[in-house]
Amino acid sequence: MQHQHIVDDLIREIHTRKDLPEGAKTELLRNVARLRDTRVNILVTGATGSGKSSTINALFNTQKARVGQGVDPETMDIVRYEFDNIVLFDSPGLGDGKEADLRHAKNITAKLREKDADGNLLVDLVLVVLDGSSRDLGTSFELINQVIIPSLGDDKSRLLVAINQADMAMKGRHWNHGENQPDPTLAAFLEEKVASTKRRIREATGVDVEPIYYAAGYKDGGQVQNPYNLAKLLVWMLRHTKQEKRVAFAQDINKDSRMWQDDDRRADYRAEISASLVESVIVGATLGGTLGTTLGGMIGGPAGAAVGRAIGTVVGGGIALVRSLFG
């Protein structure tokens, strides 16, 4: 894709700073170049009709993605969406018949156990989308309990369970379309669905998960419904991603502010998103803060402190787009 990368402003700022010695500039530029290449691989799965596609589109705007069907025979049902820094693997869940379910389970297991060129697990996060409007989630729990969790290895933090189509639960009768949020009756119902989901997974596997509910929104002809709790979903995704990799989301998340405005207001999710992404940039650009400390030690005294402050200013102001969208 030929468009400006989110770290370009940061690179320009580093070049123009006269209060940074050349050694600091060189090191910062080297680190920022690594930020440009940071990748987060996400496996998205769930039953047909759960709203995976609408979720992906709301989060990342798939119209900007490069789409390619898996070419490996073992993952031929998994569709790959490639953005600048985010790679999505969209896999069918269970419920398509015995033969198809066995194939899907095998493909998901293979993908979760796949390793990259450095020998690390390829998939950073697996997002399981449940259908909040459905009473029967048995096949989804089978997918989570019998396929995904046994394939995660020791790092169960890679799993995120999210209940979509909150607006359609209880047959949609208790959704306030004017406010784009559930009324108290529906909110209580959804909270119980979250608690039940957590309880059933814990009883079956011994693994604790923290599900959330949301609505991915839709466009149907002239009708448009913005997402609900999408910012909360992104917060949970960031929390389940290693800090040094979170910067990848800054480039590829949907830049339409309307996607992020409606939520349950239980926390300032947009502020947490902004802070999380900025911190990830700082960690990546300064190698976890060691760059300023090292240079400060080399220079010493007030000059070293000034260098440290300059680095903080450069990096902290380097992703203005994120601050404007979520600040």
Topology record:
Layout: H1 8-16, H2 22-36, E1 40-46, H3 52-60, E2 66-69, E3 79-82, E4 86-92, H4 98-113, E5 125-131, H5 138-151, E6 159-164, E7 175-176, E8 181-182, H6 184-205, E9 212-213, E10 218-220, E11 223-225, H7 230-239, H8 247-252, H9 269-285, H10 290-299, H11 301-316, H12 320-326
Parallel strand pairs: 1-4, 1-5, 5-6, 6-9
Antiparallel strand pairs: 2-3, 3-4, 7-8, 10-11
Rg calculated over all Cα atoms: 21 Å
CATH architecture of the largest domain: 3-Layer(aba) Sandwich
Distance between the termini: 27 Å
- Helical segment tally? 12
Mean pLDDT, to the nearest integer, reads 84
The neighbouring-strand order within the major sheet is 2-3-4-1-5-6-9
Helical proportion?
40-55%
Poorly predicted runs of 5 or more residues: 67-75, 292-301
Order of helical and strand elements:
HHEHEEEHEHEEEHEEEHHHHHH
How many distinct beta strands? 11
CATH topology of the largest domain: Rossmann fold
Strand content: 5-15%
Tell me about the largest β-sheet: 7 strands, mixed
Domain count: 2
CATH superfamily of the largest domain: P-loop containing nucleotide triphosphate hydrolases
Structural class: alpha/beta
Name the CATH class of the largest domain.
Answer: Alpha Beta
Shape: globular
